[in-house]
Each structure stands twice: as C-alpha cells, then as structure tokens.
Amino acid sequence: MAADEKTQAKGEQAEGKVKKVVGGALGNESLEAKGQAKESQGDLREAKEKAKDAVKPK
C-alpha cells in the first residue's frame, strides 16, 4: 500500500508541475494555481509517507 501512495505522490507532483509550467507559459493564472495546489498535495502525501516510514519498527 505504501508503494502505491508514494507512486501517487510522485504522479501528483509531476501533474502539478506540468500544469504550473503550462499555466505560466500561457499566462493562465488559474491553471498555474491549480498546478501549484496539485504539486503541494503531492508534496504533502510524500511527506506523510516518509513520516510513516520513519516510525515503522525495523
């Protein structure tokens, strides 16, 4: 399950980055903001997974 979450986080980050760049290139502030939000969502998901990994018993 954790691998799925990590993959989803990377996907969200990539999708957000693309939207942000395209929005900036086109001058579309709405698309750029949505991209930033999606990228941040991926960053948060990745941080959550890293925290879960850090507290797992070894």
Q: How is this fold's topology laid out?
A:
Layout: H1 2-26, H2 29-55
Helix pairs in contact: 1-2
Question: What would you say this structure looks like, in words?
Answer:
- With 58 residues, the chain is mainly α.
- The protein contains two helices and no strands.
- It has helices at 2-26, 29-55.
- The chain is elongated and about 50 Å long.
- The mean pLDDT is 93.
Provide key terms for this protein.
58 residues, mainly alpha
The global form is: elongated
How many beta-strand elements?
0
**What is the makeup of the main sheet?**
none
What oligomeric state best describes the polypeptide chains here? single chain
| Structural class assignment | mainly alpha
Amino-to-carboxy terminus distance: 18 Å
Mean pLDDT: 93
Please report the number of helical segments: 2
Question: In terms of per-residue confidence, which ranges show pLDDT below 50 for 5 or more consecutive residues?
Answer: none
Strand content: under 5%
N-to-C SSE string, H for helix and E for strand: HH
Query: Over the alpha carbons, how many angstroms does the gyration radius reach?
Result: 14 Å
Helix content: over 70%
